[in-house]
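User: We ran a pulldown and think these components assemble together. Before we commit to crystallization trials, I'd like a predicted model of the whole complex to look at. Sequences follow.
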Amino acid sequence: MERNDAKKPYALILAGGSGTRLWPLSREEMPKQFLALCGDSRTLLQRTALRLLSFTDKDRLRVVASGKWKALVSHQLLAVGMDSGFIIEEPEGRNTAPAIALGMARLLASGASPDDTVIVCPSDHLIKSEENFAAAMETATRAASAGNIVTFGIKPTNPDTGFGYIKTSRAGDQWFHVDEFVEKPDAENARKYVESGRYYWNGGIFCFRLSDMLRAFEAHFPEGEAIASADSERVALNFLAAPKLSIDYAVMEKADGIVCVPLDAGWSDVGSWDSVYDNSPKNGSENAVSGNVCLSGGGNNLVVGCERLICGVDLDSMIVVDTPDALFISPKGSSQKLRGVVQELKASGRTEVAESPTSARPWGTYRVLSKGDRQKIKKIEVAPGKRLSLQYHVHRSEHWIVVKGTALVTIRGHGEGASAEETFVHEGESVFVPKGKLHRLENPGKIPLEIIEVQIGEYVGEDDIERVEDDFSRAGQTG
Amino acid sequence: MERNDAKKPYALILAGGSGTRLWPLSREEMPKQFLALCGDSRTLLQRTALRLLSFTDKDRLRVVASGKWKALVSHQLLAVGMDSGFIIEEPEGRNTAPAIALGMARLLASGASPDDTVIVCPSDHLIKSEENFAAAMETATRAASAGNIVTFGIKPTNPDTGFGYIKTSRAGDQWFHVDEFVEKPDAENARKYVESGRYYWNGGIFCFRLSDMLRAFEAHFPEGEAIASADSERVALNFLAAPKLSIDYAVMEKADGIVCVPLDAGWSDVGSWDSVYDNSPKNGSENAVSGNVCLSGGGNNLVVGCERLICGVDLDSMIVVDTPDALFISPKGSSQKLRGVVQELKASGRTEVAESPTSARPWGTYRVLSKGDRQKIKKIEVAPGKRLSLQYHVHRSEHWIVVKGTALVTIRGHGEGASAEETFVHEGESVFVPKGKLHRLENPGKIPLEIIEVQIGEYVGEDDIERVEDDFSRAGQTG
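Assistant: Here's a predicted model for the assembly, 958 residues in total across the polymer chains.
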């Protein structure tokens, strides 16, 4: 069927990114692409997928991500209607060039033709105008079908020194020839570029025919070609053997016949809280607020709240980001200093930089409600039909209280002969899992299972867990 | 024994005050006097009691407070070494004149002589110099023994319009004759008062012989005399019959022979977050911080944190007050607008104005860790030998998990014949209390009992509680 419909492009979403520029909302374990920002309830990854699905099919969309993001990616995309099997797992993060080659290999293996076009797109950017984006993609697909490797040029709104620039010479009315890719410039050059009107920001979005990129790999990045055209079982090995290079450095800056399609769609990489404010809907006082927020006087503030009530008086041009375990406050314009502060926090051993109060697992999600020396309390949601791995803890006993749905709980001793006890636990009921006992939590029902887990013990760290068996067919992995 | 030691004064602490000027730390259910402020781990009430105990005896100290503060007062003062029985309970709040009369009645009933002197003192003020305070009290006690009713004059540091003023004419070197008590003046008059050097702030602290105040009552506030000199069983009735008047209005402004002893002891009524900042110890950048706070750049900030990490970048002269369920942020100088904002919050139905995440009960304390539609999670601490009242809930089941200590739990059905089940629950164990079942929690041990309570139900409000029996001898009251 795919071969009969060659006009529709494939799409590769690169979801490998990590970073804490939007700390404390983003954490090492919860990077930007998985966050809902700027007044939209869907995450940047979800919005990216839905954007691409407006002009291609589910079965042509893939997400390239390292294993540690697998659960989050599938949790978020299944939630917006994707079918399973769309994740292409990176054996490890090796930058964009190997990632794209890996994606190409999997597409070819799953029946894509070398003549098919592919759109490659980051997962953590914001696009305001879906229409303009779709139009640019349509243009790019035609340009790619004509044998061009297409990059998208974003018209600079300011002489930003944080982006690479694309130098173009006008030729043709819909796509231009690219003269040169320029690394992040200094302020002086950035100014010149913007004034000249011939430079665009490089947004890291690309479109090409598989065959053309394979040729470009051959010429400039043979390790990429070795990945993309390998037999399935060699793909991973070749991937791990490839150098960590960006697609710009490995191919774009060297290949000929690269064209640029301008993208005027309100693009932003939302790289700071200031840019989150700029891209958020505002109320009468130019405040961008979410959560339980009450502001009196002042204006031009960004307040990102959670459950807690936030009350601000006479706040002006401030940024307030509240999460269950960490709060960030700064005047606008200072938010780029956040990176350094977060590094200091990490150096001083604060776990709030890496750990996220919310986590996704193959079986569902959990949220830490409260942490103490001898206890930790979690809200756990297990998806219908899913179950956690059979496990035990050396230092803590666990109490599971069912808030919603019905749980099937297995508790048994160790060793072959040990007798297993399976119990159904219903709404409002609870079950006790003693220290050291093997146990498993499962949702046999048709609705999500919500439980409160209270851990009590001399040590309640996440690493006190022994998994006896991981059954991915039914779910498994970290519980 | 008291009669042999007439030189030591009695002390009445007035702890009836309420207010939310320091919201969200102070709540309707947790007024200022019960808060630890300005870098001291002891609450204002505790510091007030310890200050008075530096020159009088435990058995001469009483706290006048309405019933709703009884648990908090005794919890906090027992914690700083007071013996029980020091609380004089107001049948209801009727302002300071009836409160003082009530205190006098109880003192006389417990063996005080009319010649004994009494110091009356609010519970929610800050005193920096304990030495100067003690010296002023010593002076005042001598003035009182000489037949004067003494008020204390605080040298104004600014033309504040929030206080009443005392006009004096110099006479004698240690105490002056009071010409006049002046109500809160306008800015213009306040300025004149301060410039004249003859005006003091009225700090609401007094010292007198019981007999002299009884005479003053007789002349100017007969209802007070009716309270102070009634038989024990008539005291409460007469108290309830008295008008709600301040001691200033009822007596001080009218009586003759009132003298003023200057009090130069770094007094503050800590009536706003700005004044909390002014009275707090500062670090190098003039920041006053408590909790897990990390400030980078800026300075002159007050940051009052709780468990959560608070990270501020380039904050300047800001006030940040964080509590588990509410956060307040404002620039310094705007904190007096808080009162109006809090009123709006209350009008809009926010429970964070009245309810406090921490509460004291006769049996111990509890803290709300997490609240949801269908669940509420509390950390409960029951003092050794104490127990909650026998109770049941219509809408929720409860799960008790013992974190520390040992619990004795009673669960039984309703009606005479119903069988009662008493179980010991040990560390790491839990017990389930079904909806509608009568239950009681008790700490039979020698160390505090810590439990996590998880409430599950279609309604988890505090008012879903039916108490079957209150056993104050062993504890009782709200569970």
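Chain A touches chain B through 60 residues (CB under 8 Å). That may be worth checking against your pulldown data before setting up trials.

User: Thanks, that helps.
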